[in-house]
Amino acid sequence: MTWDWQVFCKDTIDGEVRAGCFGSGGDITYLDWMLSAWGWTLSVAVLALVVALVVGSLMGIFRTTPSKALVALGNAWTELFRNIPLLVQVFLWYHVLPALIPPLKSVPSFILVVFALGFFTSARIAEQVKAGIQSLPKGQRYAGLAMGFTLPQTYRYVLLPMAFRIVIPPLTSESMNIIKNSSVAFAVSIAELTMFAMQAQEETSRGIEVYLAVTGLYFASAFVVNRIALFIEHRVAVPGMVGSK
Amino acid sequence: MNLDFSFLDWNIVSSFILKGLFFSVQLTLIAMIGGIALGTVLALMRLSGKKWLVIPAAFYVNTLRSIPLVMVILWFFLLIPMLIGKPMGAELSAIITFTVFEAAYYSEIMRAGIQSVPKGQVYAGYAMGMSYRQTMQLVVLPQAFRNMLPVLLTQTIILFQDTSLVYAIGAYDLLKGFEVAGKNFNRPVETYLVAALVYFVICFSLSMLVRRLQKKIAIIR
Questions:
Q1: Which of A106, A173, B1, B23 is in the most buried spot, having the most CB atoms within 10 Å?
Q2: pTM for the predicted model, two decimal places
Q3: B90 to chain A nearest CA, in Å?
């Protein structure tokens, strides 16, 4: 077989090769389309990561508190979102919730997918955060309370600053997973990379070139996340601890 | 809106859902057995210390682990027919894809498992006059499997969840069964809810079993 990388310079409507590979005046080439799809992938992933970090940390913290009710809530949350496949969860958010709660019908599907992916990942992050807090010596918690800190203060000033540093490596791999998992959004017609790959493959019959480019973009995105996380890890390292410079 | 589950009788279940469930389970079991076998070979390659074995195995594992599973499914669905020169069904393509893909993940687990066996065990094997092959087969791998059994099973639960992604190439799995039933009876909301419930019950009970097994193994060790 022969390569045909010109496919990316083709207009998406008439299939003509455009000079400079970018469309002009409202026309778009496959390259334009792919870049915008990359933007969608990154937007879904980054927003979902924010949701996952906030909710996941909260649930992880709940699971380490002395309150039985909060522990039960955190455990139930984790089990619920961990034991249903992501694709099924995406369908629940997209097909089921708007039917049960009518106001959700006006929410764009992009937002629904962000919550689906975010809550799914929050279960994993809750697990990591819980493990991070439990890895600290019990004395830290007692010391905080003995100093007259309230429980929230003990978490805020004593436990969490250490626990979050400990869980940076597993959170890094979760952040890379979230980029990979965002590909599931194709199933509800979000115009992200996988959706682009499937449609462009169908329209142009140049599947290999299209898939290679998309796979490359996934690689690049995960690599960038990895570097950013490494940078953060070094920036916040506590001198004298394992892992600090 | 009102939910109405009354249409879901045994007839529907046996004609739409069981077929899908059967395929999902079949896919999970084949990919688990094939994936653990291939993954163990890859792990041994990576731990062999020979460059010409380490590099290809590391490349295989790292590449597959950095690509979204949906893309891997699409890649294989595109490439296999090109290589063998004739079209291939979505189901068979999915079985090959999952075996190859999961091997990368199982191999990382097996690598950790083999590394968790104390070095003295290997030396003991050699001191007994065993060859490399015998030491691995009779001394190291049985212990590695045992140590890693809970993790291998947890990965299999994830694998079972991931089988729903064959949606991308239209293979008929458990989720597809529910979807088709929902479309036929115009009750998609109810069928998706039941689908989620079925997946939850299966995965939750399996993970409870794994947890019990883990406690049992931990005591004996």
A1: B23
A2: 0.90
A3: 15
